[in-house]
Amino acid sequence: MKLEISCTRAQADHKQINRCKNVLNASAASFSKMSQILALAGNEVRLKILFLLDMEKELCPCDIADILEMSVPAISQHLRKIKDAGIIESRREGQTLYYSIVKNEKNILDNIFDSIEIIKKTA
Known about the structure:
Elements: H1 14-26, H2 28-41, H3 44-56, H4 61-68, H5 72-84, E1 88-93, E2 96-101, H6 103-113, H7 117-122
Antiparallel strand pairs: 1-2
Pfam families: HTH_5 (PF01022)
Organism: Christiangramia antarctica
Keywords: DNA-binding, Transcription, Transcription regulation
């Protein structure tokens, strides 16, 4: 069954159309960044990694691997993708890399993690 959507209007509201276009154009960078974050967070493992980094502020790949019961190489691949997107950063302490969320990205992620607050309360 083919669903056909049609639209009929007597007159276009050009002020509304232009206002919406202007808002979208002015917010293009924000939409791009949000889309990138949501695409990465759409993977359950990466969402969990981001959640853990938000909760603990900083973790090394070995800790994340132990928590998620995965191999360090698998975690490292996820961390690389998230880091390449500019959502997390790393610092080295001796031989160990520690990852944390970039401060500018924390606000966007906090809005996502607000829906997981039940888990935070029980932890």
